[in-house]
Amino acid sequence: MKASKLRTAIIFLSLAGFICPAQSVVTSTTKQIPASSQTREILGLKLRPEILAIVKEIETKTRKSISARFDDQPEFQIGASYIDEESGRAIITLDTRLEDDPKKLEAVLTHELLHLRLTVNGYPSFIWSPTVRTAKGMAIDVEQSNINDLRSIIEHRVFRVDMIKFDLYRYIDLAGVTLADARQRKGDEAGQADVINMVRAILEYADQNDIAAVRKSFNTNGWQSTVKEADDIAAIIDRTPIITPKDQETVFLRCIAKLYPVPKANWAFTLKLDPANKYYRRLILNFGRVAKK
């Protein structure tokens, strides 16, 4: 069995740290552009006015120009974005394979800009508390990618109208990746990452046949409980209006409780503002006993 796919249970509390691996930069482009400019290029791509408007909103909120560069990306990832903790600058990194595909480059760049727009408007990121331990190790080391992906899927629902308006689903399509992975892992045990992948399929695959194929493969693997959890989480995200950052936090906690079922009724997940982060809102995800009401 692939250890990275195994089901994770939260078991007790302890202290630990977290190190984020660096990426290797292939090329970079960062230009200081006057805010009044009506034309703009990022990574050689001339921006449409409606996309430029998003750039200006981000740069107005951060008071810094966006830094964008082509980097080598992890497998199955073609872009990433974040606010730098030291400078407060918005950073976008895109896969080097996009350099020769301007339409897909525009789609992925726009997608990352939409995430950044939420961040600068108070929608939080989430990070495991360094006190939460799982059966496989510290949650911040082995489970952080799952809550990153969950946050991303929730945010996609927030700006779904923009994803459709900019026709992003045509160029950002992961259909086939999850199916191929599931077919290769028959006999393996499913984990939280598989739940997340099923949620993504339900909410984001354009073709119902693709969703049905993933569902069938999961059931063939004996992952019926994974499919059930994914259905529950997808329903929470799809049916709950997310208008404010607080709405996002509420939906996130409801989904986390499904993704990592708590062992007892008097235990629960909680969120607390990370005071160390001064440029954007980051919430610390903790787990523990709650006082009886």
Describe the structure.
The protein is of the alpha+beta class and 293 residues long. It has two domains: 25-120, 2-Layer Sandwich (Zincin-like); 144-260, no CATH class. 42% of the residues lie in helices and 18% in strands. The protein has helices spanning 49-62, 102-120, 139-142, 144-158, 160-165, 177-184, 192-204, 208-220, 224-239, 245-259, and strands at residues 10-13, 25-29, 41-42, 45-46, 67-71, 79-83, 90-95, 125-128, 132-134, 137-138, 267-273, 282-289. The strands form four sheets. Strands 2-5-7-6 form a four-stranded mixed beta sheet. Strands 1-9-10 form a three-stranded antiparallel beta sheet. Helix 1 packs parallel to helix 2 and helix 4 (144-158) packs across helix 10 (245-259). The protein is globular and about 55 Å long.
Give the SSE map.
Blueprint: E1 10-13, E2 25-29, E3 41-42, E4 45-46, H1 49-62, E5 67-71, E6 79-83, E7 90-95, H2 102-120, E8 125-128, E9 132-134, E10 137-138, H3 139-142, H4 144-158, H5 160-165, H6 177-184, H7 192-204, H8 208-220, H9 224-239, H10 245-259, E11 267-273, E12 282-289
Work out the number of β strands: 12
Estimate percent helicity: 40-55%
Shape, please?
globular
Strand/helix succession = EEEEHEEEHEEEHHHHHHHHEE
Computed Rg = 20 Å
Q: What do the pLDDT scores average to? A: 87
| Biggest beta sheet summary | 4 strands, mixed
Q: What's the N-to-C terminus distance? A: 43 Å
List low-confidence stretches.
1-6, 10-31
Our estimate of the beta-strand percent is 15-25%
Number of domains: 2
Short structural description:
With 293 residues, the protein is α+β, with helices and mostly antiparallel strands. Helices cover 42% and strands 18% of the residues.
